[in-house]
Amino acid sequence: xxxxxxxKHAQRIEATPGALRPDAxxxxxxxxxxxxxLSAATGLAERGIHVTVAEPQPQLGGRVRSWTVEGAAGTVTxxxxxxxxxxQYYNLRSLLERIPSKGPSPSTSPLRAVPDYPLRSSDxxxxxxxxxxxTPPWSFIGFVVQSPSFRARDLLGVDLDAAxxxxxxxxxxxxxxxxxxxAQDFLDRLGFPERARHLALEVFxxxxxAKPTEFAAGEMLAMFHTYFLGSSEGLLFDxxxxxxxxxxxxxxRDYLSGLGVQWRGTxxxxxxxxxxxxxxxxxxxxxxxxxxxxxxxxxxxxxRLGAETTGINAPQWSDRMRSIRQAxxxxxWRLWLDRPVGSNRPAFLGxxxxxxxxxxxxxxxxxxxxxxxxxxxxGSVVELHAYALDEPVDEQSLQRRLRDxxxxxxxxxxxxxxxxxxxxxxxxxxxxxxxxxxxxxxVRTPHPSLVLAGDTIRCEYPVALMERAATTGWQAAxxxxxxxxxxxxxxxxxxLVSRHAYPRTLRKLLDSGRRARRLVTRxxxxxxxxxx
Length: 532
Known about the structure:
The protein is built from 16 helices and 22 strands. It has helices at about 35-45, 90-95, 140-145, 150-155, 160-165, 175, 185-190, 195-205, 215-230, 245-260, 300-310, 315-320, 370-375, 395-410, 465-485, 500-525, and strands at about 10-15, 25-30, 50-55, 65-70, 75-80, 85, 110-115, 120, 125, 235-240, 260-265, 270-275, 280, 285-290, 290-295, 330-335, 350, 360, 380-390, 420-425, 450, 490-495. The protein has a 7-stranded mixed β-sheet, with helices on both faces. Strands 11-3-2-15-21 form a 5-stranded parallel β-sheet, sandwiched between helices. It has a 3-stranded antiparallel β-sheet with strand order 6-10-7. Helix 5 runs antiparallel to helix 16 and helix 7 (about 185-190) crosses helix 9 (about 215-230). The protein starts with 10 loop residues before the first strand and ends in a 9-residue tail after the last helix.
């Protein structure tokens, strides 16, 4: 199933050839019911593989799940926060296109377009992506021209060589080329104006729940390439049209159940790999044998299960699994206010310089359930995010600071009363740190019956977050299908190399100039004479 693709430079990764069904029954355990696990389960079940998904949470979606809560606001929904479904998320959108359509109108679609993604700084500057051209390089040029964060004289101080490395990319080599370099180091070397780097680049590090000093420069370059200079899908995005469970995962579960997928509401405690297949010990005390396993859990469970799996004699691989790190804690605070925020407020606002507040979502602008609550109570459902928190987290202090910053951003909320609220603090996201790219775990493992998936897992394409989870999920399914001579699924990615040749040409000219200057310098006589 091919997703909607506007960019003619998007690259198709062809499916491996093979039969449409296996020549014998195959049973696969998928550990984790998040995006990676659901992608893998879909890829396998559509080829006639018997799939069991083990997920201890009552809802699917992993870190993009939602659930109901009872409180002073009534029966409402909660989640781990707003998620942006960018138009470059080809493989995630391919998964979502399996969701049965409920009707032809946009109101029945599981996704809803967000008209803008403004970024606001505490110094009064604001950036918008609504009117920026979608095709590179005009997308970046248009952003610079209209952005108050960029001034022509500031750009004169940008390091040309570093700037060209933003433009001249070749994945996955670009990941390797920046091994050990943090986003902060790269930004310092780049010499971007301070206010521009916060609004234009550091937002990428924050979206990974990471501090710029701990976030890999190669990952930031991949995001810059994907959104600004490598893809003509643009910088705007969609979001779920209702809570995640209602809009996305419950209907996808129905689709997969129709393909015969079985669901186990339990964790997996251990894996024992055999010469062929694996035995899994479940959290409910039962054990089952499978032909293969897709490990698509969160970073903590992936680290533990991978490092402790028996039957794999590969110490170096086990060490890689133990090295999986988690990002700092983040907070999602959802408020049910007794009065609405201003009607001109965007659905989603990114912020910088407002203390711990990283963004604000006004949920009734896009989520049907929140819109119904807003209509019934005359208030707003507002969600505040704070990323990369220092630990331990003082919850009361954090709430006070977030409430104060919300009043600065949206002054009309200063007098609003909180009818109900839910605070969620988690630290279960992966950290894409400074370790060498080649040392990160990849989809294939030393055992052919065990594959990995998730945003924790290395991917050679310029994809991240939800799209990396979906892409590696499809790749995990394809790896197992290939071993059984069954046809895989095609994948799509933003271009793996720069769209234009001029950055590489300029870099070659710069390198040639440097070599020429070194040769001239070596040939010059010393000031005190050659014979001194």
